[in-house]
Amino acid sequence: MISHSLPMQPDTCGYWFIVNHQQLYWPPEQQSLALMSMGELVALFGEPEQSGSLGELNGQAAYYWVLNDQRDDEDNWLSPRQLLAQGDGVFELAARAVQVALFLQTHRYCGQCGSAMHLVSWELAALCHRCGHRCYPRIAPCVLVAVVKDDQLLLARSSRYKAGFFSILAGFVESAETLEQAAVREVKEEVGVDIDQLEYVGSQPWPFPHSLMTGFIARYVGGAIRCQPNEIEEAHWFELDALPEVPPVQTLSGQMIARVQQRILGNKKAT
Ligand SMILES: [Zn+2]
């Protein structure tokens, strides 16, 4: 459980994830985070807008430190996406830090009555003392679907991707929908194809800005590819030993593509 209310002293020491407008302080020469005291941070950045506990990193306490001010050293700040390859849970804590910062920034006032919100001391939540409305950090579940037909994988290029870059299908879960229903609906909407035999693979927090990716491998049942306008630029069946550029293995979609590839190509070799 994340607690944001901790008795912080100038000598409180740990790993600090410093967030400014959804970016993390990570100077170009920095290889990994260094242990620092709160006093050192105040000397470097001034008082934070918010700070609190994030969890643990390498057996040491990890904290967030939210600035949200104007800074002129933009080379020293990067998106958590650029920390994907950092091991030891650094990406996960970075993802949590930017999501907590966004929650705090967007829940200053009550969405129901407009009064100022107050942070609850025993959990990460914002509470309106006037009407009792309580909010928790927003998490948007999203399904990733790897559709397999014999030795082929269905990959699509979204209008947001550069030319030549493809990935498996993805979409947000709607209200009152199961993950499986969302997977079937998204695949049908985006490429006009029917699927079944959904197999859950795993999940990955994705802080852009607050998604939780969940992955399924599914079997193609029928239908010809028909791309959803304004959403999918192109989609094709690719042979698994001749894939185009796809997401890296640090991402859940990259891991799923690699898993399908190993399974199908491994089976092929065995027969
Ligand atoms: Zn209220």
Can you give keywords for this protein?
271 residues, globular, alpha+beta, Nucleoside Triphosphate Pyrophosphohydrolase, 4 helices
Description:
Keywords: Hydrolase, Magnesium, Metal-binding, NAD. Belongs to the Nudix hydrolase family. NudC subfamily. Its cofactor is Zn(2+); Mg(2+). It comes from Alkalimonas delamerensis. This is NAD(+) diphosphatase. The chain has 271 residues and is an alpha+beta fold. The chain has two domains: 13-106, Nucleoside Triphosphate Pyrophosphohydrolase (Alpha-Beta Complex); 140-270, Nucleoside Triphosphate Pyrophosphohydrolase, CATH 3.90.79. It is built from four helices and 15 strands. The protein has helices spanning 38-45, 90-106, 179-191, 252-270; strands at residues 13-20, 23-25, 36-37, 50-57, 60-66, 77-78, 117-119, 126-128, 134-135, 140-149, 152-158, 169-172, 194-206, 211-222, 232-239. Strands 1, 2, 3, 4, 5 and 6 form a six-stranded mixed β-sheet that branches. Strands 10, 11, 12, 13, 14 and 15 form a six-stranded mixed β-sheet that branches. The longest helix has 19 residues, at 252-270. The chain is globular, with a radius of gyration of 22 Å. The termini are far apart. The model is unreliable at 1-5 (pLDDT under 50). Zinc ion (ZN) binds at residues 110, 112-113, 115, 128, 130-131, 133. Zinc ion (ZN) is lined by residues 110, 112-113, 115, 128, 130-131, 133.
